[in-house]
Design a protein that fits this description.
There is one protein chain. Helices cover 35% and strands 15% of the residues. With 257 residues, it is α/β, with parallel strands linked by helices.
């Protein structure tokens, strides 16, 4: 006898996992929203004076910001002013009950608040920490804040985007943030699997620039070993044909890949 099972009635793969989310705007919230979609309990900690910056980007969705609605579904939120000791103490108690702690505060801010990943895991050996930065924790740019457009430019993504001979092209969505969020998600899932075997948490560290650099691997290899950097080709492809938009006799373009 065949039986149809409603998949929506099953608990998510991460049911029972509690995530404490001190991230804001995009890379971190994208990651934690996906964790929530998989059944985790996500508690988002926001500033009391306006909350996550993404709340104010626009008013497109029934008065709420499109970015906020997109990457914060399924979460609980609490407003804490971490400049005040009682609220830091409350956060410390929340960390003690969490499985995952994720933050993308300004460089050095988490450590100054006593929330550095090494210190947290020393106190809570089963805790998984995830730090998302702009440029990693070492090197000359480690102290800089990062923004998606800057990372698109610095990694070379804009050099291969746009029309031939035209202006450099920003990719129309925040690809570096999204890619970093995806890498954070992968790292946290791997850390959860490792903890299931060892009983110990671990550190996940992701940077926007590192994520963007990985996306640029093929253009880099073409430039390094092919003798010439790829040019901007619009909808065409530097290596594959037919690939792109083609004008038909009735004046309508079709895309072939």
């Amino acid at each position: 006898m065949n039986e149809t099972v409603d998949a929506g009635a099953r608990p998510g793969a991460l049911a029972g996992i509690r995530v404490l989310d001190l991230s804001r705007v995009l890379a971190g919230p994208w990651c934690t929203q996906t964790l929530a979609d998989l059944g985790a309990e996500v508690i988002k900690v926001e500033r009391p004076d306006g909350g996550d910056f993404a709340r104010g980007y626009d008013r497109s969705v029934h008065g709420q910001a499109s970015y906020w609605v997109w990457i914060n579904r399924g979460k609980q939120t609490i407003a804490l002013d971490l400049r005040h000791a009682p609220e830091r103490d409350l956060l410390a108690r929340m960390v003690a009950r969490a499985d995952v702690f994720i933050q993308n505060l300004a460089p050095g801010a988490a450590a100054r608040l006593g929330l550095g990943s090494e210190a947290l895991r020393a106190r809570h050996p089963r805790l998984i920490t995830c730090d998302i930065s702009g440029y990693g924790e070492g090197g000359p740019d480690a102290g800089l804040k990062a923004y998606d457009l800057l990372v698109q430019a610095e990694s070379g993504l804009v050099a291969v985007s746009g029309a031939p001979g035209g202006e450099l092209g920003r990719i129309g969505v925040s690809l570096c943030d999204i890619s970093a969020g995806m890498n954070a998600l992968i790292g946290i899932q791997q850390a959860l699997l490792a903890r299931a075997r060892s009983g110990r948490g671990s550190a996940v560290k992701v940077s926007l620039f590192g994520s963007a650099a990985e996306l640029m691997s093929v253009p880099y290899l073409q430039a390094r070993y092919g003798g010439r950097a790829p040019e901007r080709v619009g909808l065409r492809h530097p290596s594959i044909a037919p690939y792109g938009a083609f004008r038909c006799a009735d004046g309508v373009d079709i895309v072939i890949s």
